[in-house]
Amino acid sequence: MEMTSRVEVEEEGDNNKGSMWDLDQKLDQPMDEEAGRLRNTYREKKFSQLLLLRLAFQSLGVVYGDLGTSPLYVFYNTFPHGIKDPEDVIGALSLIIYSLTLIPLLKYVFIVCRANDNGQGGTFALYSLLCRHANVRTIPNQHRTDEELTTYSRSTFHEQSFAAKTQRWLERYVFRKNALLILVLVGTCMVIGDGILTPAISVLSASGGIKVNHPQLSNDVVTVVAVVILVGLFSMQHYGTDKVGWLFAPIVLLWFLLIGGIGLFNIWKYDTGVLKAFSPVYIYKYLRKGGKDGWTSLGGIMLSITGIEALFADLAHFPVAAIQIAFTVVVFPCLLLAYSGQAAYLMQNTDHVVDAFYRSIPQSIYWPVFIVATAAAVVASQATISATFSIIKQALALGCFPRVKVVHTSKKFLGQIYIPDMNWILMILCICVTAGFQNQSQIGNAYGTAVVIVMLVTTFLMILIMLLVWRCHWILVVLFTGLSLVVECTYFSAVLFKIDQGGWVPLVIAAAFLIIMYVWHYGTLKRYEFEMHSKVSMAWIVGLGPSLGLVRVPGIGLVYTELASGVPHIFSHFITNLPAIHSVVVFVCVKYLPVYTVPEEERFLVKRIGPKNFHMFRCVARYGYKDLHKKDDDFEKKLFESLFLFVRLESMMEGFSDSDEYSLYGQETERSREALLNRNGNMSPSLADPTISSIDSIVQFKSPSQANLTVRSSGQRSSQAEVDEREFLNNCRDAGVVHIMGNTVVRARRDSRFYKKIAVDYIYAFLRKICRENSMILNVPHESLLNVGQIFYV
To answer: Where is the K+ potassium transporter C-terminal domain (predicted)?
Structure first.
């Protein structure tokens, strides 16, 4: 019996061997997959940690160079008239310690850096975030289809929430929108001022080390050396930092390790008692004892936190976590050691405050440190110049800066750009400041004024970010605002005493750039309003008939306009003055959105204007503020690809939607594009129930079954029409493409106030004359360009 059972079991086992084996495999497979998943997760985690550390290392060279070179000049600018009491050094050190803790560490690295726009930093990045969460743009060219971009991230809030009330408060009056814009422009102008003052003070301070070992040298020699370095630095900008950028991080890391090590050595050698400066009591004693002189010395102490504006503006290629790791692990401790070491040295050598940094270096390593200091000063200057280029590019995209040439210096990194015109302006102003002052103290006063105003602007913008974007509780907003304003207003009051000692320089520079930027924006706004109010009605166009009352000659006319809807006035001006127009007319609107980039596949929106036999289309090309019109980009080719794809889509959808207006909307995936180009009569499942957005309407398609039925029934009829139209478009394209642009002249009315006449008739007209033509920015071939002139009065 036992044997039989066993045999039966064995036979049963043989019969079911496959199924049992399958079961074992099924049981083992999840375990293997789970183990593999765990291994992959571990590897990815390990890899991501290594990558994060690598990015943190690289961020040192791009982000922290400016902040790291501050020890070169802080103590001299704090005590420009000498140290009267050694105890004052302890008070100044205590102020430096808590300034570094409150502003760079807590405010910027852990709070403000989180307010980036998809990794982009700076005042205009904050402004772009606000523009997406509230209707605060002064140029009203936004449309609901823009919100469907993958990069157009925004949060929604309840109608009765505090964020919604803040939004309505901002949007209620045009005055508030203009005030917000001016605030952003002030911050931008001060960053441009930093791009002038940072190279001046960093390079001049580093070059001053020559005099320590050669006291017989005059200040003129140091100034000449600094000017030569600056000329070389600005002259090399057009090469970009792609090839030498890998050197920046090792140089700055070596610099931080050197100043940290020297500081530790000096604390041990001269006076360990300086560590009592970590007690905030000494801040109170210093300010009470120093009186007005102690208060004004805050302007010098504030230089210890310069570079934070470049830190925020240069975020582009580094995650916030990498920035935080680099600051907390390397930058912050090394800076504390460096300042503490200098303070310890000054406690025993109060008469060496002018060259405190170089005097405190051990003689055996003096020249190596001098070389590294000069290299670090150059890297710090480069970081600020790059930040200046970046923020000007953002201002240019949002219509707040005259059109200038922007050169892409790297194929790998989108953010590495070079602006030739601004580069030479910065160089000339930087040399003027360096040669004109020849004094670190006065340049430091100017630098401090610029930095504290940028900090205040960032604080005010962060209040709105916390309310509208983050939707923080009002108590947290009040806490952040209170702590920030207490520190920054204290420093601001101190720098006001030094306006006549060099602090006026950034104010003059910022005022000049503010006038330029605001007048340019005002002119741009008025041009847009003119086009909006004078656009041609569709009834008039349709009344002209398919020939538009003219001879339709073979070819395609690309009419450039700032309007995303409607027919621009330039077109009526064109057809009333010329007897012929092209067989196909495409109205092209190049529009910048408050996003950092628009993906290539989402760039173009295409729509038909009027009946089919009019052969008129509109194409809206959308860009973000980091996107560039590069010469190797075939704008015309991509535009026609989008146009042909639109015709294909329209033909397939004919009779299947309630509307005959369609657009090729950018969010179509590559799979959708392939499906559209497929010659089958059947529709792809991925396109069964999409929402097609047009410029003026959003049309919801019918159900999948209705769609398939309609497409099959109308397939024969639409296919021939589509082939005919595509062939017609190809023939017109072969006949020639002409780019038609409006050359609009803006004039102030005779009854305008005198300041408006100066702004429009002189400043704006001058800027239009010297800036680059729109055709150059869009890389339009000169031989196929046609300008149409018109004048309007504001």
So the answer is: 554-791
**Packing angle between helix 366-397 and helix 17-63, nearest 10 degrees?**
100
Q: What is the pLDDT of residues 441-479, one digit of tens each?
A: 788 888 888 889 999 999 999 999 999 888 888 899 999
Give tens-digit pLDDT for 407-453: 877 666 666 788 888 999 999 999 998 888 867 778 888 888 888 99
Q: Cα 54 from chain centroid?
A: 23
**Inter-residue contact 769 to 782 (CB < 8 Å):** no
Dist. CA 4–CA 154, nearest whole Å = 74
pLDDT of residue 411: 66
In this structure, what token pair is assigned to residue 422?
Answer: 């601004």
This model's pTM is above 0.85: no
Structure tokens given for 118: 């998809």
Q: For residue range 701-738, what is the model confidence (pLDDT) as tens digits?
A: 233 333 333 334 444 555 566 677 788 888 888 888 88
What pLDDT is stored for residue 7 in this prediction?
31
What per-residue confidence (pLDDT) applies to 43? Answer: 42
Q: What are the φ/ψ torsions at residue 181 (nearest 5 degrees)? A: -65, -45
Residue 448 near residue 300, CB atoms below 8 Å: yes
Q: Per this entry, what is the length of the chain? A: 794
Q: For helices 474-496 and 440-464, give the axis angle rounded to 10 degrees.
A: 160
Alpha-helical segments (H) within 79-173:
86-100, 123-133, 162-172
On whether the CB atoms of residues 707 and 701 are closer than 8 A, the answer is yes
Q: What is the pLDDT of residue 184?
A: 93
Low-confidence ranges of the chain (pLDDT < 50): 1-36, 38-44, 46-47, 632, 655-715
Residue with tokens 């949002």: 398
How many Å apart are CA 777 and CA 403, to the nearest integer? 8
Cα separation, 400 vs 359, in Å, equals 46
What is the distance between the alpha carbons of residues 411 and 639, in angstroms, rounded to a whole number? Answer: 23
Q: What is the DSSP letter of 90?
A: H
Q: What is the largest CA-CA distance in the chain?
A: 120
Using a 10 angstrom Cβ sphere, with 0-12 exposed, 13-18 middle and 19 or more buried, the burial of residue 551 is exposed
CA distance 705 to 618: 31
DSSP labels for 739-753?
Answer: EEEEEEEEE--TTS-
Q: What is the DSSP string of 382-399?
A: HHHHHHHHHHHHHHHHTT
Tell which phi-psi region holds residue 581, choosing left (phi > 0), alpha (psi between -120 and 50) or beta: beta
Query: Exposure string (b/e) for 124-147, b if CB count within 10 Å is 16 or more?
Result: bbbbbbbbbbbebbbbebbbebbe
Cβ-based burial of 220 (10 A; exposed 0-12, middle 13-18, buried ≥19): exposed
State the Cα–Cα distance between residues 701 and 537, nearest whole angstrom.
28
d(CA 659, CA 653): 10
- Closest C-alpha among 158, 671, 117 to residue 397: 117
User: Which two structure tokens, joined as six digits, stand for 728?
Assistant: 């017609």
Beta strand ranges found along 139-275 (DSSP E): none
Query: Using CA atoms, how far apart are residues 498 and 694, in angstroms rounded to an integer?
Result: 57
Structure confidence at residue 539 (pLDDT): 79
φ and ψ at residue 244, rounded to 5 degrees: -110, -5
Contact 49, 414 (CB under 8 A): no
